[in-house]
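Now for today's protein:

——
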Amino acid sequence: MAAMSAPALVPPTARPRAVSNWLLTLCALIFVMVVVGGITRLTESGLSITEWKPITGAIPPLTQAQWQHQFELYQRIPEYQQLNRGMTLDEFKNIFFWEWAHRQLGRVIGLVALLPLVWFAAKKAIPRGYGWRTGIIFLLVCVQGAIGWWMVASGLTERTDVSHVRLAVHLLTALVILSFTLWTALDLRSEGAVPRKVPTLGLWAFAALFVQLLFGAYVAGLDAGYAFDTWPLMGDELYPAAAPWLEPFVRNFVDNPVTVQFVHRWWAWVVLVFAVVLARKVRPSSRRHSIALHSAIGAQILLGIWTLLSGVKLHVAVAHQATAVLVVASFVAAIHRLAVPGRVTERAAPLVPSTAEGL
């Protein structure tokens, strides 16, 4: 009887594989976005565009007069007046490019999140139980654009850089969107496209990883990677006794570059423990998920150490940030592999074999 009622609960036009492919494409674009965002931050390019024009801003300056106007706007902010006074127009064009490319990618991601969503919805190709999820993904992408401007705005009046707290919100939101999108895509590819519940181990692993990513964002925002370029000790000590200490105590875990770098160094090993446990748990059912998780976390720790020892060389630091995204993806994939199907309801009905096929 249940098998007879399933087709009535699922639109015969549902195409879970196609919707999953769209979401995986979105994940790939978010990966590129985070990498370009890292380059933008490391090259101090984020404040080169001082206006937020979501539509007209897609067109870069085309004439000498337009370039001069953008440069004059930049010359009004503290970063130029206190740090970059004397910068030439050609030097300005270099930093402008990265911020423009970052924003342009944001526009592309917005279109990729919206247009296929509208098309799939019109064709009734989204399986039941996934319409609200894909809608939330689009809304999160829109919110992320607003967060990006909120971050930039923090560095336009009184500061010579953006708020590291706002930068952390911006980066973590991107990674939350990536995780939610990837989980949804994997749900759609699972047997029957039945949504899966995050296991308890997965929740703890995500929490540990979130803490590490948060402190990684603080390290980037505070330029804390430059505080000490030695490893495993910070100079000659585990924690430098002469380092300044902020009051109240909790501020050190947000605003003190030395403390932030210290936590980011050593919390990595907590994340490593979770990664090893997850890899061992998932290995019996999927050796490739286990290998991917081991590889991503191992490469990330080595790149983190290399970033410090290199004095935060651009290509090393960018590779470190890019690999962080791969770590997040490998955690999501491994945890999803361990997850169990949730309760099937009319809102999230399983697909019958005839509708489970993709393109």
Q: What stands out?
A: The mean pLDDT is 91.
